């Protein structure tokens, strides 16, 4: 990471580095990863607060209030002063909490929501949605891919690590990133077999492989991927020990990602290296908009059923967490300079209401 420097206004170029922050989520791993990605890009000192409202309070989210039993704002509560300088929320259950923080009289917390909160643009100071989402507004920003913690700097560091097992594999190295069945993608047996045949043709071209499943990967899909690559140099994560996912992504010359995961596709696109998307049966309008935009930008391509050559193309790596962080910093500076929030030097001004 680069050193913070002063700009013409006397403020550091990383004004929120080291600032206190809360990440409020409903505990879904994908949502946690997106919020951590933005917090890491800002260099925040953050605390993760997962929320699980029950009963009527769960049903009322995101529109209803925080459950009274949380005693929000009172001593001894999980959500009490000292208030954080930044709060990042994602997931339906988190929205009542970020709204409660808001622009109240006793907090100057800058609030951020990732994904459409369904409660309108005034829910937070800044809202991020993926470009394929329809929400727009003066405080809404979009990027092609979701934020995550696989920054360009981290990818570069992992590529320099020659001690990693993956670094010993011969080129071309292919990372096979497997998702699995969800609400829209079915992964029928014929889909598994298509993937197997494609991997077998890559093996015939001399590729080596790094295969990593997710929690949704069904046994047959992983098994056919293993069988297709069994005669090639191959690393397969079996779920034990540290997950080498980030290393596999960084060390790959070519990445194959199943279409069911927006997060994993976005992480692959930070490499600047070819990303091939495997489409199982099914899909939805929202997924199609996401993948079509990446294809139109020359970033990804549909995976062919058979490879006759090793694909090769490049593009400017997509680092959405950095883009979102830069926008948060820009808006933070504007509020400080306008006197609406406390400056980094400690000069205190009341924050103006909306």
List keywords for this structure.
disordered C terminus; six-stranded parallel beta sheet; 30% helix; disordered N terminus; Rossmann fold; single chain; alpha/beta; 2 domains; 354 residues
Are there runs of 5+ residues with pLDDT below 50, and where? 1-11, 347-354
- CATH C-level label of the largest domain: Alpha Beta
- What is the CATH architecture term of the largest domain? 3-Layer(aba) Sandwich
Q: Please estimate the helix content.
A: 25-40%
The number of distinct β-strands equals: 12
How would you summarize what this structure contains?
This protein has helices at residues 29-42, 55-60, 95-101, 152-160, 189-204, 219-228, 245-251, 262-268, 285-296, 320-337; strands spanning 20-25, 45-50, 86-90, 110-114, 126-130, 140-143, 173-177, 208-212, 234-236, 254-258, 275-278, 300-302.
Structure description:
With 354 residues, the protein is α/β, with parallel strands linked by helices. The chain has two domains: 20-148 and 320-337, 3-Layer(aba) Sandwich (Rossmann fold); 152-302, Rossmann fold, CATH 3.40.50. 30% of the residues lie in helices and 16% in strands. It contains ten helices and twelve strands. It has helices spanning 29-42, 55-60, 95-101, 152-160, 189-204, 219-228, 245-251, 262-268, 285-296, 320-337; strands at 20-25, 45-50, 86-90, 110-114, 126-130, 140-143, 173-177, 208-212, 234-236, 254-258, 275-278, 300-302. The strands form two sheets. It has a six-stranded parallel sheet, sandwiched between helices. A six-stranded parallel sheet has the order 9-8-7-10-11-12. Strand 3, helix 3 (95-101) and strand 4 form a beta-alpha-beta unit. Helix 1 (29-42) packs across helix 10, helix 4 crosses helix 7 (245-251) and helix 5 runs parallel beside helix 6. The radius of gyration is 22 Å and the shape is elongated. The model is unreliable at 1-11 and 347-354 (pLDDT under 50).
């Amino acid at each position: 990471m680069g050193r913070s420097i002063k700009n013409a206004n006397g403020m550091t170029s990383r004004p929120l580095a080291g600032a206190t922050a809360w990440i409020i989520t409903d505990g879904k791993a994908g949502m946690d990863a997106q919020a951590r990605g933005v917090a890491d890009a800002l260099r925040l000192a953050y605390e993760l607060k997962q929320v699980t409202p029950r009963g009527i309070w769960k049903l009322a989210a995101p529109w209803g209030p925080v459950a009274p039993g949380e005693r929000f704002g009172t001593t001894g509560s999980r959500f009490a002063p000292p208030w954080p300088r930044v709060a990042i929320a994602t997931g339906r259950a988190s929205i009542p909490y970020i709204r409660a923080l808001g622009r109240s009289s006793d907090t100057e917390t800058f609030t951020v929501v990732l994904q459409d909160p369904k409660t309108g643009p005034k829910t937070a100071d800044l809202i991020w949605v993926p470009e394929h989402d329809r929400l727009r507004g003066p405080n809404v920003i979009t990027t092609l891919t979701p934020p995550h913690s696989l920054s360009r700097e981290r990818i570069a560091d992992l590529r320099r690590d020659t001690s990693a097992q993956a670094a010993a594999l011969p080129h071309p190295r292919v990372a096979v990133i497997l998702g699995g069945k969800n609400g829209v993608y079915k992964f029928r047996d014929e889909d598994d077999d298509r993937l197997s045949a494609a991997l077998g043709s890559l093996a015939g071209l001399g590729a080596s492989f790094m295969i990593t499943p997710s929690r949704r990967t069904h046994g047959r899909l992983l098994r056919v991927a293993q069988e297709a690559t069994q005669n090639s140099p191959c690393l397969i994560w079996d779920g034990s020990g540290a997950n080498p996912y980030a290393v596999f992504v960084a060390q790959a010359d070519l990445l194959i990602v199943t279409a069911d995961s927006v997060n994993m596709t976005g992480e692959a696109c930070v490499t600047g290296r070819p990303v091939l998307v495997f489409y199982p049966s099914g899909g939805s309008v929202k997924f199609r908009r996401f993948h079509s935009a990446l294809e139109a930008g020359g970033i990804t391509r549909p995976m062919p059923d058979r490879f006759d050559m090793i694909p090769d193309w490049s593009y400017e790596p997509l680092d959405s967490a950095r883009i979102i962080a830069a926008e948060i910093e820009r808006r933070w500076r504007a509020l400080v300079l306008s006197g609406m929030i406390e400056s980094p030097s400690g000069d205190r001004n009341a924050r103006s209401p909306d």
